[in-house]
């Protein structure tokens, strides 16, 4: 007997359950399954009265699906995905489709596709961004894998995805192989940078200017009306306005300053090393989280290592505007690094990525959604072969306009002993990229001195070595 449910969801945690509800709400009947009976019971309660069923066994789950079977995996990345695929694989037929919608390492997606090659089972690795609320109301979706599988899910994905202000669904076919999960990883790397830079703006206003959370709420709310308009700026304003119901203190002041991470920012940084892309602002955001985790060591060090006074003596309102400039300019640099990673991956893997389309699908639903992304799409619409986002006329003008305040902020932070690693690394990236000459000539001479690594000359072609010690 052929089942009637259009989509199956394996993994009924909050994300899987919310995606399932989103799918059904948009007209596609759903069958769900989870190995955990508690998750099955919770899902049955949420699915009651809808065109949804929760199966008690994997066999019942598969029987409930129409053919070809379309199965969305919402299980933890890594070994759990492999385990589910191993259990499903002998029960699937040619033309059935597996969709991994978790935060999966893109090389795992490439491996799984290779392992399924020749079986007739189709595979898509789909990046999904937007958290629990996005899964329920409309996420940004980044599918990639077997191209022949896209028509099987395109109507579903486009229907359930977030819609940008122009009505376009925030879902686009990214490319073959592991392209979808790669693009999601870069999204998360950019997200790490965005969050760290916002935190540095907050820290400067609190430590250097002694602004209260309520005053900072007003600043971020105002910033959200202009070119910094974004989900992360919006929620930052909301966070700063929130009071702890137990103590009455600002909520931000009762939260311990140790940040967690799930690994995608680290992956993006590792890939930057592999592909030879200077993505230091993304990497420094990962390192900043690592530093925050050293809470006990930092507390001990604060009693030993001394620094300058952290109060700013100048015009506070003017300095707030400089911080805004630093945040916007650093954001441009961080995104430039992310899109450089996409460009390098495209050259390495031949995915034929469309940077403008990627920027467009990040305009709504996802964590880095922002007005700013429309400008990035316009930049790549002007020049598809743009080598670096900073070279686009709009962004180069913005960087030049923000540069004086940006430099003042980084210099002042150093003078006051307030760490701003993301602002500083972004400025160094900008200054390095715009420098026709860098000190790498001395570095290459050092390498040749101690290791005979050779060098090239400025005055003629060829590879050379010098006997440095007579």
| Low-confidence segments | none
Distance between the termini: 87 Å
Shape: globular
Helix and strand succession?
EHEHEHEHEHEHEHHHHHHHHHHHHH
Largest sheet: 7 strands, mixed
Number of strands: 7
Q: How would you characterize the overall build of this protein?
A:
The chain has 470 residues and is an alpha/beta fold. The protein is 54% helix and 7% strand. The chain contains 19 helices and seven strands. It has a seven-stranded mixed β-sheet with strand order 3-2-1-4-5-6-7, with helices on both faces. Helix 1 (14-25) links the parallel strand 1 (7-10) and strand 2 (30-33). The longest helix has 34 residues, at 316-349. The protein is globular, with a radius of gyration of 25 Å. The termini are far apart.
